[in-house]
């Protein structure tokens, strides 16, 4: 399977290493900030799939390429205003998957959190916290927003605490971001009740889980007709 990588940062380089080590994968092209123009004109790198871990800034050029060539797209880039909705719309032209997190653990945690939200709301207050490495550009993380959707939170009611905020308002969901060191990604959803707390945490010990998840999605996506697929659907193929 021929893979075009968009973004050659921490994720892009890890994916390139895994492609190099594998027998069935081949690197067709690398697009980075300095050669985005390579996507334009009549360029076609005969890739079976594009894997994108870059920046929302690439979206227009990438979308044009997908519409023109119909190449399957696995996208994990976060920081989009609309959390990937525009990427998902490319499903009209190619098989597409967008998720803010390609780990199996977060996929299952989102389902667990949805159940806890249903069982514990509205009497329990919900707070979401995430910790990432010092280089991460966006906050809150895409995964924190995925978990907020899962727990049934309303984005208009999210807040971060500051000194004069006063008491916590009913129905609000706290979103808290910590940045430092080399943490690949930690997410906690806490449900605070009267004299009790339920917490569920996912810790990534390496970016490898995201890269392997993206490759699993890519292998599965390539056999599909145009459309938008979820990570859960593609995992079922394995
Ligand atoms: N869904 C998931 O499971 C995961 C998602 N992510 C997300 O993936 C993205 C990348 O993460 P990571 O690799 O750690 O970040 P890095 O900052 O290490 O890498 C980003 C790469 O994208 C490049 N880039 C920046 N702007 C553009 C552009 N306009 N066009 C093409 N390339 C561009 C950067 O180039 P340059 O260095 O020259 O600026 C860099 O090579 C982030 O949004 C992150 O949140 C990360 C891990 C897992
Ligand atoms: O930037 C990262 O590193 C990560 N970003 C994703 C996010 O924003 O949720 C996924 C993972 O947590 C790592």
Automatic annotation (TrEMBL):
Residues 158-179 are annotated as: Disordered. It is found in: Cytoplasm. Homotetramer. One of its GO terms (cellular component) is cytosol. Its EC number is 1.17.1.8. This is 4-hydroxy-tetrahydrodipicolinate reductase. Keywords: Amino-acid biosynthesis, Cytoplasm, Diaminopimelate biosynthesis, Lysine biosynthesis, NAD, NADP, Oxidoreductase. Belongs to the DapB family. GO terms for biological process: diaminopimelate biosynthetic process; lysine biosynthetic process via diaminopimelate. The active site is at 132 (proton donor/acceptor), 136 (proton donor). Pathway: Amino-acid biosynthesis; L-lysine biosynthesis via DAP pathway; (S)-tetrahydrodipicolinate from L-aspartate: step 4/4. The keyword NADP applies. (S)-2,3,4,5-tetrahydrodipicolinate binds at residues 133, 142-143. Catalyzes the conversion of 4-hydroxy-tetrahydrodipicolinate (HTPA) to tetrahydrodipicolinate. Residues 105-235 form the Dihydrodipicolinate reductase C-terminal domain. It comes from Scrofimicrobium canadense. HAMAP family: DapB. One of its GO terms (molecular function) is NAD binding. NAD(+) binds at residues 34, 76-78, 99-102. It catalyses: (S)-2,3,4,5-tetrahydrodipicolinate + NADP(+) + H2O = (2S,4S)-4-hydroxy-2,3,4,5-tetrahydrodipicolinate + NADPH + H(+); (S)-2,3,4,5-tetrahydrodipicolinate + NAD(+) + H2O = (2S,4S)-4-hydroxy-2,3,4,5-tetrahydrodipicolinate + NADH + H(+).
